[in-house]
Design a protein that fits this description.
Blueprint: E1 6-12, E2 29-30, E3 33-34, H1 35-45, E4 50-55, H2 59-67, E5 75-79, H3 86-93, E6 102-107, H4 115-124, E7 130-136, E8 145-148, E9 154-158, H5 165-168, E10 172-181, H6 182-189, H7 206-212, E11 217-221, H8 234-254, E12 258-259, E13 265-273, E14 278-279, E15 283-291, E16 296-297, E17 302-304, E18 307-308, E19 313-314, E20 319-321, E21 323-325, E22 330-331, E23 336-337, E24 341-343, E25 348-351, E26 354-356, E27 359-360, E28 365-368, E29 371-373, E30 375-377, E31 382-383, E32 388-389, E33 400-402, E34 407-408, E35 413-414
Parallel strand pairs: 1-4, 1-6, 4-5, 7-11, 12-14, 13-15, 14-16, 15-17, 15-18, 16-19, 17-20, 18-21, 19-22, 20-23, 21-24, 22-25, 23-26, 24-27, 25-28, 26-29, 27-30, 28-31, 30-33, 31-34, 32-35
Antiparallel strand pairs: 2-3, 6-10, 7-10, 8-9
Bound molecules: uridine-diphosphate-N-acetylglucosamine and calcium ion.
Length: 415
């Protein structure tokens, strides 16, 4: 028997009142990417037939951001003009969905759900059963609770706001992820009402409807509690951020990197490292960074989208963005390397030096208080303290060329 097609609906229209923010909640950053980006790449990895993303609050910002991010599967935006609840949100996507398909519902504010859990969920939701992903949490506060009967069958999901004190003691929670046949989903959504404490159309109410229509609801367990945590507040956002950072630091150390303090290292992107790399405290890495062998990164450096070759030594408080740093280069302390900077082997860049869109040849030195922008500097050049290139005439940027073995004295202005 061939599987029915799989359609994913991602809910991302909510304002996120508890974030106290003007931005849509799903656009808050986690490990360098919006919450929604984490969910969309997991959805993408399932290779579904289609992905529908329901947006509403801050919708234009959401669309603008994702226009620039290519994914394997294209996704369709669906608008939910008024945020009347998760059930109402899902309903907005249904007209675009084939009724024979299996629908997988994901929440844009639960970013770390695993591909494995979702695969198991989809598998379970493909027949006549409704599958929900649940988890046991030590602190279930804030989540809908899974209500089971005496024979341990799932009967309903009870939202915290509507739960009795006894029901709040239940530690099995609803993660929000559901897999169900689209036609049946539509049938139940059409019957939803908003007669509850929050006057919202709860998606979770379809569970008791399914049960009373004689369908079995299967609870699939997600093992890792962090994988099912939702972000409703800044505190929860920071808890997940620390979780990701701890895991990443652990992996880096396993691969042979020395982190002087794994609690004080932040990677907001991807980092490739060679052997015997030492990273001092307070370093932040953004975007894609590639570090070679025997590299030292001093305290409080910020490194973004750059390549740092073997033997380089980056002293403390140096900021590097879009730089290509050759082998055995020394930079800093307190230097700024900006996009388009290329430093060849054994270059020295000292304190309070800014280099932008320039290449500096092998063995050259710019040791103190200088600005090198839009320039080509040859090999074995010495640039004296306080030298600046001034190649912007108010309208056009010109290029400055300095040959090999040139000596530029202190306080020079190269116009
Ligand atoms: C929801 C579940 C709860 C579950 C928890 C898991 C419901 C009624 N409750 O509660 O059982 O334990 O998630 O994290 O579903 N959204 C829309 N449109 C709306 C309302 C919400 O798109 O009108 C989106 C939000 O952007 C968010 C997601 O749906 O991404 C969940 O909404 P939220 O208000 O955070 O629900 P919870 O109260 O966390
Ligand atoms: Ca939530």
């Amino acid at each position: 028997m061939s599987h029915p097609s799989l359609e994913v609906i991602v809910l991302a229209a909510g304002k996120g009142t508890r974030m106290q923010s003007r931005r849509a909640k799903v656009m808050h950053m986690l490990a360098g990417r919006p919450l929604l980006a984490h969910v969309l790449s997991t959805a993408d990895s399932l290779s579904p037939d289609r992905i529908h993303v329901v947006i509403g609050f801050g919708a234009n910002d959401v669309q603008d951001y994702f226009k620039a991010c290519p994914m394997k599967n294209e996704f369709r935006w669906v608008r939910q003009e008024q945020q009347l609840g998760t059930g109402h949100a899902v309903k907005q996507a249904l007209p675009f969905i084939d009724h024979a398909s299996t629908v997988l519902i994901l929440y844009g504010d639960v970013p770390l759900v695993s591909q494995d859990s979702l695969n198991r969920l989809v598998e379970a939701g493909q027949g006549d059963e409704v599958a929900i992903l649940t988890a046991y949490l030590d602190d279930p506060r804030g989540y809908g609770r899974i209500y089971r009967d005496e024979s341990n069958e799932v009967r309903a999901i009870i939202e915290e706001a509507d739960a009795s004190p006894e029901q709040r003691e239940i530690s099995e929670v609803n993660t929000g992820f559901i897999a169900v046949n689209a036609g049946r989903l539509k049938h139940w959504l059409d019957r939803l009402d908003n007669q509850n404490r929050q006057n919202e159309y709860y998606l979770t109410d379809i569970i008791s409807m399914a049960v009373s229509d004689g369908f079995k609801v299967k609870g699939i367990q997600a093992g890792d509690p962090y994988a099912v945590m939702g972000v409703n507040s800044r505190q929860q956002l920071s808890a997940l951020e620390r979780h990701i950072q701890r895991n990443q630091a652990e992996k880096l150390m396993q691969s042979g990197v020395t982190l002087m303090d794994p609690e004080r290292f932040d990677l907001r992107g991807t980092l490739r490292t060679g052997q015997d790399v030492v990273i001092d405290v307070g370093v932040v890495v953004n975007g894609h960074v590639d570090i070679g062998n025997n590299v030292y990164i001093g305290a409080y450096c910020v490194i973004t989208d750059s390549v740092i070759s073997d033997g380089a030594r980056i002293e403390s408080h140096t900021v590097i963005e879009g730089g290509h740093i050759g082998s055995d280069v020394r930079i800093g302390p307190f230097a700024r390397i900006r996009p388009g900077a290329r430093l060849d082997e054994e270059v020295r860049v000292g304190n309070f030096v800014e280099v932008k869109n320039s290449s500096i040849g092998q063995g050259s030195k710019v040791n103190h208080l200088s600005y090198i922008g839009d320039a080509t500097v040859g090999k074995q050049v010495n640039i004296g303290a306080g030298t600046i290139t001034c190649n912007y005439d108010g309208a056009n940027k010109h290029h400055t060329d300095i040959g090999d073995h040139v000596f530029v004295g202190s306080s020079s202005q190269l116009v």
